[in-house]
Amino acid sequence: MDTLPVSPAPGQPTLFTTGVARLRSGDRVAIMGRNGGGKSSLLRLLWQQMNNASPLPGLRLHPRLHPGYYDQTLAQLPDEASLLEA
What SS3 class is residue 50? Predict the structure, then answer.
């Protein structure tokens, strides 16, 4: 990542801009901050860009990247599904 602007939704003002970060295989990352600080917005932006054929400038993804993301609202799971089915 290189100076990636993070906003809560498209068309909204930028909450913050990331610094330069390079993650390598096996790295672990903690995203910490106050409530409403943009942690979920950053993860949502990264997830959207990982699934976009032409990501934003400032974000370079390894061609063998296989991301996983689970939204905190639990909206991605059917209520009747078991943990294994989900």
Answer: helix
Read out DSSP for 54-78? Answer: SPPTT----TT-------TT-TTS-
Number of independent structural domains in the chain: 1
- What average pLDDT does the structure give for the chain? 76
Domain that residue 6 falls in? 1-86
Long-range contacts of 71-74 (CB under 8 A, 24+ apart): 71/44, 72/40
Helix (H) or strand (E) holding 47: helix 39-50
> pLDDT tens for residues 57-73?
777 778 887 776 666 66
DSSP string of 8-36, one letter each residue: SSTTSPPSEE-------TT--------TT
